[in-house]
C-alpha cells in the first residue's frame, strides 16, 4: 500500500505522513510484556498454591484448569501444560497475550489477598503455548470421518475454535472468510505490539494442522455465497462473522478528511511490513473508552504523534478498557480525558482541525447528564473507537432472530434457525473478548456434534 | 546483646558455631577465611594414616532443589583428607598459633588396631589442637575399608576405638555418630562406656539423589557409574534433632555433652539443636552453599533471641526443651485441640479443605450458605494439624486447646482435667492400673 492509497483508505489528508524512521519504530514496537524464560517460568509456577476449586479457573471464560497447567510447568512438563490449556482453549497462545488477565484469572488469584501480587498466569500460559506452537506439537487426533459437513462463516477466533472442535470429532469443515488471511481480530484488530512475531498466523496454522478444515478466502456473504445456500448445502452452519461495521459519531462533517476509523487504522498498521510508512499526525484525538481506543492511542504515540488524547464521554469507572490498559496508555504518554461528550468537529481548509466537547456528569446510577460547559481540543486526526456493530449484509436478509442488533442465541450458541449456530462478537450478550469468542466456538461445536449424534 | 562465649568441654571459643569436619576445613587457607569471617571453631577435616586417600575427579556433590532453586538437600562422596598427614599437621600447628582464641579440633579416622592410635594420637596432639573428634560416620568409601560408618555401626568397635583414643590423648575426645543405624542410643552408650567426653551427631545419611532422566542412570555418576553418598543439608535436620533429643533424654547417655550437627542453616536451626540438648553446633552444608559469612546471621540472630528470652548465655538455652520430649505412650489422651481458621486472614485457596476432605477427616467446609468459605467442622476435627501445616498464610489456621469442662463436639464428651494416657487406657492389653 502506498502512502497516498493508505491516506485515501483511512480518510486522511493527502499530506499526512509518517513521523519516525523504521529503526525508531521498531524500538517503539517491542513486546508489551517480555516472555518468561524457562527459569522464570519454573520460579513463577512455584508461586501457584494449587488452590482447591481455584478461583482463576472459574474466572476463565474457557474454564482452563489453570492450577494443573501451572503445576505441569513447575515439574518441567511444559508439553503437558500446553495440552491442558489447549484442550479447553485452542487459541491459548493469542489469549495469553490479549486477555485482560488482570480482570479475569489474575484478578481473583488468592495471592492478591496474600501479597497483592497474583501469579503471572497469562505469562505462564504464553510460555507453555508458544513452545508448543513454535515446535508444532499436536495433541489432538481427529475421530474417523463422520460424513458430516459444516460451513463456518468467518475465520476469526469463534470460527476457528468451532472448526477445530468439529474437526476433532471427525466432521468436515469449510470456512468462508471475507479477507485474505484467517485469524479475525487476532490478525486484523489487535494492536501490533501485542502480537509480534507473527504469532497470530502461527496459531492459525497450528489449528489447521489437525486437518478436516478448509478455508475459502475472499468470500463475502451475499456476493459469493448466501446463507440460504449454506443451509441447504451443509449439515450445519456456524456464524462467526464478528462486527464488520463501525459506529458513527453522528456529527456534522463526519466525512471530512482526518476523521478516521480506529479499527481500519489498526488493521492497516498490522498488515504493513514497514510501519514507518504509516501516516500519523502531531495531534490526535481518540473518541472512545474501550481497548480499541487504547490500542489506537498507544500506537499513534509509538508512531511519533506528539499529542494523543483519549476522550471518553463517561467517568473513569465506566471505561471499557481495564485500569491496567488505561495505565499502559498513560505510561506511553497518552492523555485520557473523562466526562467529555463529542459536540462538533472543527474544520479548517477541508481537514479536521479539532473538536468541541460538552462536559458531562455521571451520577451514582450511571446516568449521564450534559452540563453547560464546553471544551475545545485541537487535532489533525480524530479516530472513532466507539464500538462496532454487525454489518447487516452479513445476515443476508435471513429471518434469524436478533436482539439489540446482534444475533440471538441460546446457551449452546444455537440461533432461531434449525441448523444455524453463532458465536463471538456477532451474538447478543457477549463481552467482546477473544477468549469468550473461543468459548462460544467450542460450545457451539459441542452442540453441533450432539445434534449430529441425536 | 547476650554473650555467645562457648566453653564446650572446657574448650574456649567466642561463639558456639563450629565448622564441621568436611571440605570447608580441608586446609589452612579455608580455615583462615572461616576464622576471619567469625566462626568460633573448626573441626579439621578428618586425617588418617598415610598414604593419603584419593578422591574421584568427577562430581563429588549433588543437591536436591526446591522449584525456586534453593538446595534443600545435599550429598557428597568425598573421602577424608587426601593430603599427606604431615601437611595437615603443619597447617594445624600454624593455625592454632595464628588463632589462639578459636577452637581447633582434629577429626581422626584409624583402623581398629591399637598401634595405629598409639602412633598417631600423640603426634596430632603435639600440634597444639584443642581436642579430637573420632569419625565414625563417613558412609561411603571409607566404610568399605572397615572404617567410618562401618565402625560406627558396631557399638563394640565404637567403644574400643574410643578407649584407645582416650588412652593416648590428653585433650577431650568427641565421638561423632552415624545416623545409619536403627537406634542411635547403642553407639551413644558405647561412646559413654569407652570414656568419650562428648558425642557429636549426625554424620551424613546413605543416599542416592535421583536418576539422570536422559541417561536413566543414577545421578550423579563418575563416568558410567555412581556410588551412594552422604546426605545432609536442611532436609536432614529433623532426623538429627530426634537423635540428639533421644541421647539427651535417656538415662545413661543424658549426661554426655552433645555437639549438634545436621542442616543448621540459620540461627533458628541452632536454637533447635541447643534447646533439644546440644551444647554447641557444627555447620557444613550451609557454608558450602552460601560461603562463610552465614555465620553473621547465626551469631546475631542467636544473640538477639537469647536477649528476647531474657537469657544471658548459650548454656541457659541448652536442653530447655528436652523435658518436653517423651514417649508416645505418655501423651495425654484427654487433651483436645481444634483447628480454628481466621476468616480475615484466609485467602481462600481452599487447600485446607481439599487436604482434609481427600486425606483426613472431612472436617473443613468449602461452601457456607452458598458462598466459598472454609470453616472447621468441630464435630469432625481431630486436631491433626494437617491444615495448619499446609496453609500458606502464617497464623491463619491455629490449633486452639479446649479447656477442661468444655465439650468436645466430636465425641460429645466433657474435657477432663485429669491426665490419661495409653499406659492406663482400657484398650491397651498391657495397661497398668492407675496407682
Automatic annotation (TrEMBL), chain A:
It comes from Leucothrix arctica. Involved in pyrimidine base degradation. Catalyzes physiologically the reduction of uracil to 5,6-dihydrouracil (DHU) by using NADH as a specific cosubstrate. It also catalyzes the reverse reaction and the reduction of thymine to 5,6-dihydrothymine (DHT). Residues 39-69 form the 4Fe-4S ferredoxin-type domain. The keyword Cytoplasm does not apply. Its EC number is 1.3.1.1. The keyword Disulfide bond does not apply. Heterotetramer of 2 PreA and 2 PreT subunits. Keywords: Flavoprotein, FMN, Oxidoreductase. GO terms for molecular function: dihydropyrimidine dehydrogenase (NAD+) activity; iron-sulfur cluster binding. Its cofactor is FMN. PROSITE patterns: 4FE4S_FER_2. InterPro entries: 4Fe4S_Fe-S-bd, DPD_II, FAD/NAD-bd_sf, FAD/NAD-binding_dom, Helical_ferredxn. It is an enzyme of class 1 (oxidoreductase). Gene3D superfamilies: Alpha-helical ferredoxin, FAD/NAD(P)-binding domain. It catalyses: 5,6-dihydrothymine + NAD(+) = thymine + NADH + H(+); 5,6-dihydrouracil + NAD(+) = uracil + NADH + H(+). This is dihydrouracil dehydrogenase (NAD(+)).
From TrEMBL, chain B:
Belongs to the dihydropyrimidine dehydrogenase family. NCBIfam families: PRK08318.1. It catalyses: 5,6-dihydrouracil + NAD(+) = uracil + NADH + H(+); 5,6-dihydrothymine + NAD(+) = thymine + NADH + H(+). This is dihydrouracil dehydrogenase (NAD(+)). The lineage of its organism: Bacteria, Pseudomonadati, Pseudomonadota, Gammaproteobacteria, Thiotrichales. InterPro entries: 4Fe4S_Fe-S-bd, 4Fe4S_Fe_S_CS, Aldolase_TIM, Dihydroorotate_DH_cat. PROSITE patterns: 4FE4S_FER_1, 4FE4S_FER_2. Keywords: Iron, Iron-sulfur, Metal-binding, Oxidoreductase. Involved in pyrimidine base degradation. Catalyzes physiologically the reduction of uracil to 5,6-dihydrouracil (DHU) by using NADH as a specific cosubstrate. It also catalyzes the reverse reaction and the reduction of thymine to 5,6-dihydrothymine (DHT). The keyword NADP does not apply. Its EC number is 1.3.1.1. The keyword Oxidoreductase applies. It holds the Pfam family Fer4_21. It comes from the Bacteria. GO terms for cellular component: cytoplasm. Residues 337-370, 372-402 form the 4Fe-4S ferredoxin-type domain. Heterotetramer of 2 PreA and 2 PreT subunits. One of its GO terms (molecular function) is iron-sulfur cluster binding.
Amino acid at each position: 500500500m502506498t502512502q497516498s492509497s493508505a491516506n485515501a483508505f483511512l480518510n486522511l489528508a493527502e499530506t499526512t505522513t509518517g513521523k519516525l524512521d523504521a529503526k525508531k519504530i521498531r524500538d517503539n514496537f517491542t513486546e508489551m510484556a517480555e516472555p518468561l524464560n524457562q527459569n522464570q517460568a519454573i520460579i513463577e509456577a512455584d508461586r501457584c498454591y494449587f488452590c482447591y476449586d481455584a478461583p482463576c479457573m472459574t474466572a476463565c471464560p474457557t474454564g482452563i484448569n489453570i492450577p494443573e497447567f501451572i503445576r505441569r510447568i513447575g515439574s518441567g512438563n511444559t508439553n503437558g501444560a500446553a495440552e491442558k490449556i489447549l484442550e479447553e482453549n485452542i487459541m491459548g497462545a493469542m489469549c495469553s497475550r490479549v486477555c485482560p488477565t488482570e480482570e479475569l484469572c489474575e484478578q481473583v488469584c488468592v495471592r492478591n489477598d496474600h501479597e497483592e501480587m497474583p501469579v503471572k498466569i497469562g505469562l505462564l500460559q504464553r510460555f507453555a503455548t508458544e513452545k508448543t506452537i513454535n515446535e508444532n506439537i499436536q495433541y489432538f487426533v481427529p475421530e474417523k470421518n463422520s460424513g458430516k459437513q459444516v460451513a463456518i462463516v468467518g475465520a476469526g477466533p469463534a470460527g476457528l475454535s468451532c472448526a477445530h472442535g468439529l474437526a476433532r470429532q471427525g466432521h468436515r469443515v469449510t470456512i468462508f472468510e471475507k479477507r485474505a488471511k484467517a485469524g479475525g481480530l487476532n490478525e486484523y484488530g489487535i494492536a501490533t505490539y501485542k502480537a509480534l512475531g507473527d504469532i497470530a498466523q502461527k496459531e492459525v496454522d497450528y489449528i489447521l494442522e489437525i486437518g478436516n478444515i478448509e478455508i475459502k478466502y475472499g468470500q463475502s456473504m451475499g456476493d459469493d455465497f448466501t446463507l440460504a445456500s449454506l443451509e441447504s448445502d451443509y449439515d450445519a452452519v456456524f456464524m462467526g462473522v464478528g462486527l464488520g461495521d463501525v459506529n458513527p459519531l453522528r456529527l456534522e462533517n463526519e466525512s471530512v478528511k482526518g476523521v478516521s476509523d480506529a479499527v481500519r487504522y489498526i488493521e492497516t498498521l498490522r498488515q504493513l511490513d514497514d510501519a514507518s510508512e504509516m501516516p500519523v499526525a502531531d495531534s490526535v484525538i481518540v473518541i472512545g473508552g474501550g481497548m480499541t481506543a487504547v490500542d489506537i492511542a498507544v500506537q499513534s504515540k509509538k508512531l511519533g504523534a506528539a499529542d494523543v488524547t483519549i476522550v471518553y464521554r463517561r467517568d473513569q469507572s465506566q471505561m471499557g478498557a481495564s485500569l491496567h490498559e488505561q495505565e499502559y496508555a498513560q505510561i506511553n504518554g497518552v492523555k485520557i480525558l473523562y466526562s467529555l461528550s463529542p459536540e462538533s468537529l472543527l474544520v479548517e481548509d477541508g481537514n479536521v482541525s479539532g473538536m468541541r466537547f460538552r462536559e458531562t456528569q455521571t451520577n451514582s446510577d450511571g446516568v449521564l447528564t450534559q452540563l453547560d460547559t464546553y471544551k475545545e481540543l485541537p487535532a489533525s486526526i480524530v479516530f472513532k473507537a466507539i464500538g462496532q456493530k454487525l454489518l447487516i449484509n452479513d445476515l443476508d436478509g435471513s429471518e434469524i432472530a436478533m436482539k439489540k442488533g446482534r444475533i440471538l442465541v441460546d446457551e449452546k450458541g444455537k440461533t432461531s434457525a434449525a441448523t444455524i449456530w453463532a458465536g463471538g462478537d456477532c451474538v447478543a450478550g457477549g463481552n467482546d473478548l477473544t477468549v469468550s469468542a473461543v468459548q462460544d466456538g467450542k460450545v457451539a461445536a459441542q452442540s453441533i456434534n450432539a445434534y449430529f449424534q441425536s | 546483646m547476650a554473650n555467645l562465649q562457648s566453653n564446650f568441654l572446657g574448650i574456649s571459643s567466642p561463639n558456639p558455631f563450629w565448622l564441621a569436619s568436611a571440605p570447608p576445613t580441608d586446609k589452612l587457607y579455608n580455615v583462615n577465611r572461616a576464622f576471619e569471617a567469625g566462626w568460633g571453631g573448626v573441626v579439621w577435616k578428618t586425617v588418617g594414616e598415610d598414604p593419603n586417600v584419593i578422591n574421584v575427579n568427577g562430581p563429588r556433590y549433588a543437591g536436591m532443589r526446591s522449584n525456586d532453586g534453593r538446595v534443600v538437600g545435599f550429598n557428597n562422596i568425598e573421602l577424608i583428607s587426601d593430603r599427606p598427614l604431615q601437611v595437615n599437621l603443619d597447617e594445624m600447628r600454624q593455625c592454632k598459633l595464628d588463632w589462639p582464641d578459636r577452637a581447633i579440633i582434629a577429626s581422626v579416622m584409624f583402623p581398629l588396631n591399637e598401634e595405629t592410635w598409639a602412633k598417631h594420637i600423640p603426634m596430632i596432639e603435639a600440634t597444639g589442637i584443642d581436642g579430637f573428634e573420632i569419625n565414625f560416620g563417613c558412609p561411603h568409601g571409607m566404610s568399605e575399608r572397615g572404617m567410618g560408618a562401618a565402625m560406627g555401626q558396631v557399638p563394640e568397635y565404637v567403644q574400643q576405638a574410643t578407649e584407645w583414643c582416650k588412652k593416648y590423648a590428653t585433650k577431650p575426645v568427641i565421638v561423632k555418630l552415624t545416623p545409619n543405624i536403627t537406634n542411635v542410643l547403642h553407639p551413644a552408650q558405647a561412646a559413654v562406656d569407652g570414656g568419650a567426653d562428648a558425642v557429636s551427631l549426625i554424620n551424613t545419611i546413605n543416599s542416592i539423589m535421583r536418576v539422570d532422566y536422559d541417561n536413566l542412570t543414577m545421578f550423579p555418576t563418575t563416568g558410567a557409574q555412581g556410588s551412594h553418598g552422604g546426605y545432609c543439608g536442611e532436609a536432614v535436620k529433623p532426623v538429627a534433632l530426634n537423635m540428639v533429643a533421644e541421647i539427651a533424654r535417656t538415662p545413661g547417655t543424658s549426661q554426655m555433652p552433645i555437639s549438634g550437627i545436621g542442616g543448621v542453616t540459620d540461627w533458628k536451626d541452632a536454637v533447635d539443636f541447643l534447646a533439644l540438648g546440644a551444647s554447641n553446633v557444627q555447620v557444613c552444608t550451609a557454608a558450602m552453599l552460601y560461603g562463610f559469612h552465614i555465620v553473621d546471621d547465626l551469631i546475631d540472630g542467636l544473640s538477639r533471641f537469647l536477649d528476647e528470652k531474657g537469657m544471658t548465655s548459650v548454656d541457659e538455652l541448652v536442653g530447655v526443651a528436652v523435658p518436653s520430649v517423651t514417649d508416645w505412650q505418655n501423651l495425654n489422651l484427654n487433651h483436645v485441640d481444634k483447628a480454628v481458621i481466621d476468616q480475615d486472614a484466609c485467602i481462600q485457596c481452599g487447600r485446607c479443605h481439599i487436604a482434609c476432605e481427600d486425606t483426613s477427616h472431612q472436617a473443613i467446609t468449602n461452601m457456607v450458605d452458598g458462598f466459598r468459605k472454609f470453616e472447621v467442622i468441630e464435630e469432625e476435627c481431630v486436631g491433626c494439624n494437617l491444615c495448619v501445616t499446609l496453609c500458606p498464610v502464617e497464623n491463619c489456621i491455629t490449633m486452639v486447646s479446649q479447656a477442661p469442662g468444655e465439650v468436645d463436639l466430636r465425641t460429645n464428651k466433657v474435657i477432663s482435667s485429669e491426665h490419661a494416657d495409653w499406659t492406663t487406657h482400657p484398650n491397651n492389653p498391657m495397661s497398668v492400673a492407675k496407682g
